[in-house]
Write a structure and sequence with these properties.
Elements: H1 13-23, E1 28-29, H2 30-37, H3 41-55, E2 60-65, E3 68-73, H4 78-85, H5 95-107, H6 112-119, H7 124-132, E4 136-141, E5 149-153, H8 155-160
Antiparallel strand pairs: 1-3, 2-3, 4-5
Helix pairs in contact: 1-3, 2-3, 5-7
């Protein structure tokens, strides 16, 4: 199901998609892009792959969190972009903030109590700080009692760490705890035969 040639200005689907992503101030939903282009989600997915390949050697990239798509500058261009815009790294992230971001990156969406349980400490202030910096966002609510807020990473967080999606994260390798040593057997309990 393709768009009417008169309505697309004779542009290829990936060029039309690029135009929509360029003018979108916020990450666009995959379904919204498919509807706007009058094509299937699969056709949008294929066009996104084409754009990602084209951008591999350029100063742009496609950021993706689930079904949300955003066009941003490449992390490789961060230095020149920051200099041009007069931005500098004025603050760094605390160890607690980095731990919380890592937890959310690998396990999102999570509620605050779930993050607290994984970190083993209260994360209220850390989450508030990450929300204020635009690195974490509310992405929904659970169906449980009180309907707690679910948190996830923003495209800004992905861009900050040079990722185009959470799928680009390295595999999570959790070290196994060493085996417990065998309890020494008291000499009087050893059976003699």
């Amino acid at each position: 199901m393709s768009m009417n040639p008169e309505s697309n200005g004779g542009l290829a689907l990936n060029a039309q998609l690029e135009s929509l992503l360029f003018v979108s101030a916020e990450p666009a939903l995959l379904a919204t892009l498919a509807e706007a282009l009058a094509v299937t989600r699969a056709e949008v997915e294929a066009a996104l792959r084409t754009l990602a390949e084209e951008y591999a050697q350029r100063g742009l990239q496609i950021l993706r969190i689930g079904d949300r798509i955003h066009l941003t500058t490449s992390p490789r261009a961060a230095g020149v972009v920051e200099k041009f815009l007069g931005l500098g790294h004025t603050t760094s992230l605390s160890k607690a903030a980095l731990e919380t971001l890592a937890i959310l990156a690998y396990r999102q969406p999570l509620t605050r109590p779930q993050v607290d349980a994984i970190r083993g400490v209260n994360c209220d202030s850390v989450l508030q700080s990450l929300l204020a910096k635009g690195l974490v966002e509310e992405i929904g609510r659970t169906e449980g009692p009180g309907r707690p807020i679910l948190y996830g990473l923003t495209t800004t967080a992905l861009q900050h760490f040079g990722l185009s999606s959470v799928e680009d994260l390295p595999p999570l390798e959790i070290e196994e705890a060493p085996p417990m040593p065998a309890e020494p057997v008291a000499p009087e309990t050893v059976l003699k035969g």
